[in-house]
């Protein structure tokens, strides 16, 4: 038997070399592709480990604050904090501090919005100060935000300038004959006026070139010789309280202070409830407003009045004075106004303001509904005008932005006793901080820190980018706007009893449970190891059990772009489609789990395709020896002996292929920048032998069953009952069915590769889930996707080679038949189309099966069935068919080299 085995390898070199080449391709591909899978796995683990740790590990919120949408999607909304104004007690906070394993517990208490007003003054043209007649000017302000797409006109204000003196409170002009005429004296101070109407929003300034505004001299840098007006900015300033020590440990807020000093670590002052007892509390103020808004100002000179006009809201609303002549136009940005506000905060506090803030406002969370064209759509809400009851008409009216579309419910906490305005606690800045200098955490694992920066809402399509001028949607003066204002005033937790005094403010200010969220960092967390994950999980469970609060583990999370649609709103606001980075929980663990699964799947696919390739080659070798094996059976060779001979030949070829494949894999892997060690390359030898033995088991068993009659049996099955094939396609399909086992192996080999290609394409193009969709997942996918495609492409290539091998064998076994067809008048082009059609038929079956399997697997993986998934499957299937047709062209070329005369003579 050994002599026969050696003689087969020695004297049938072409067949042996062909089988050896097939095994060599399979073994080399197996070694290189498993190295690619391992390299992909190592890169993924390294990337996830490097970006695993976020600013904090556990987010603790009040019970019931986690929305149904967050629970269903496994996310945390980026703008959740502004909608939580308490719910955690100080006792619960101290309980969390004492839990073993808690390294830092940093609370945030969202107090609410104060509405200080700062007047930004502007001079009238020089003619107003030098003329000797009466002059009347109309001031119009348009509040522009949302990248210029939202423009809200404010009712006009008026400036009156006269050469006569102004006397009395309220603006009376004294005429030369000694009589007095009221000009600005008709200003109503009724709170019944609508907060956004002319009576509330308009201002009147009466200037005398003799004794200044209202006869009282200058005002805010303006004088009798420099008359002017002011644009009133009412800033919603969000006040939050922190533990200064814990916050410094968590994010280094103390290092972001740019002027003044950090918050003092001392108990807050006692509150003096008696009127006149002014009290302040220390704050850190952000050095920038964070608002994307400006006021477009236009100054028009109206016709000079012949006599003193009686300016009152009815006349202002009718604007009976006519269009006038534009004498000045300019913009005032939120940044300019905020700088002026900071100078007051860091100076003498609110004493220099026109009026004190007389209440607080809180806002609720944003609600969403499913949008059929995108992910989510924000639901607008309608806030009643009664929430501005503390506004003083003409002096402390709310910003005009509050009349725009709102997405958050606004709640007012007004002063119970309007005569005790001076008893309201007011902030006094002890320092300023730069939000950009707060410790920068890894952007791939960023989680909302809350106090410092607004939510980034980037335009998600071309119309939105055009509307927003290519910039993000920034906060405005609208408390109910979609993007909430960042925290601008930070104070200490110890000040909360003083700030949230129920004796002064109406409504629930959560004095008993003031803390909104607590961010917890766990000690001993070093990476995505099982020990670190278990430590975080244990601390989270203890917090939930001891406090009964809502607990989310955010370590290993990553921002996941989520599409949000804002419907068209008031004042011509267009619809916007935005992309927000919601926090996707558990991304790191999901990636590590998925990469392990992917490695197993890819390893299995490679092994199956290589085994099918070797099995096909081995089957071809056995079929080429049918007559020889039949003769051996006639000579008395037993089936075990024939089985051992065939299997031994395959094992010997596998050994040679393993040695050659292992040696070839080293330079090939190096050229592809893959990691293959000598030990892994040496494993190719036993792997090749095992692969050859396993894959050749069935062909060897078939060979052992050979009977003497096999020597005269035709090499292919009969086509069945006699029928006339209709053209090339009909004959090609009959030929494929004559060798069903061989065609099945080729189709199955191709199907495996197409299925892998379908799944990978679907994950790349269609899904935004555990692997792709989060920033960390996208980064990992970018790093390993090239390796994945190399592996899948090689798998498809092996499948295509298997189909080509099937066609080669078909041509060899039907050589005489093809020569007969040619002799009957078929041109070579028709025979070529016949072979290509056979390959296309096998390729179509394999591609359809593979695309279907990949489609089902990708849908199961993603948990959804989007239209792009079907497109990915169709594209992968078409690619498989086209590549197979291209591979069939080479076997078709063999038809020209068939020795027709010899074959016909042999028949």
What is this structure's SSE topology?
Layout: H1 2-11, H2 13-50, E1 58-61, H3 68-73, E2 75-76, H4 90-97, E3 102-114, E4 117-123, H5 127-130, E5 135-145, E6 150-153, E7 157-162, E8 166-167, E9 172-174, E10 180-182, H6 198-201, E11 204-208, E12 212-213, E13 228-234, E14 237-242, H7 244-251, E15 257-260, E16 280-286, E17 293-302, H8 313-318, E18 325-333, H9 334-345, E19 359-363, E20 368-370, E21 376-378, E22 410-414, E23 426-433, E24 457-459, H10 462-467, E25 487-492, H11 496-499, E26 517-522, H12 530-547, E27 550-553, E28 558-566, E29 576-584, H13 587-623, H14 626-634, H15 639-671, H16 678-682, H17 684-695, H18 697-704, H19 727-738, H20 740-765, H21 775-813, H22 815-823, H23 828-862, H24 867-893, H25 900-906
Parallel strand pairs: 7-11, 14-25, 16-23, 21-28
Antiparallel strand pairs: 1-26, 1-27, 2-29, 3-14, 3-26, 4-13, 5-6, 5-7, 5-17, 8-9, 9-10, 11-12, 15-23, 16-25, 17-18, 19-22, 20-21, 24-29, 28-29
Helix pairs in contact: 1-15, 2-13, 2-15, 2-17, 2-21, 13-17, 13-18, 13-20, 13-21, 15-17, 15-18, 19-23, 20-21, 20-23, 20-24, 21-23, 21-24, 22-25, 23-24
Report on this structure.
The protein is α+β, with helices and mostly antiparallel strands. It has 3 domains: 1-52 and 559-713, no CATH class; 117-488, no CATH class; 718-907, no CATH class. 42% of the residues lie in helices and 18% in strands. The strands form 6 sheets. A 9-stranded mixed beta sheet has the order 15-23-16-25-14-3-26-1-27. Strands 5, 6, 7, 11, 12, 17 and 18 form a 7-stranded mixed beta sheet that branches. Helix 2 packs across helix 15, helix 21 packs antiparallel against helix 23 and helix 23 packs antiparallel against helix 24. It is elongated. It starts with a helix and ends with a helix. The model is unreliable at 269-277, 349-355 and 766-772 (pLDDT under 50).
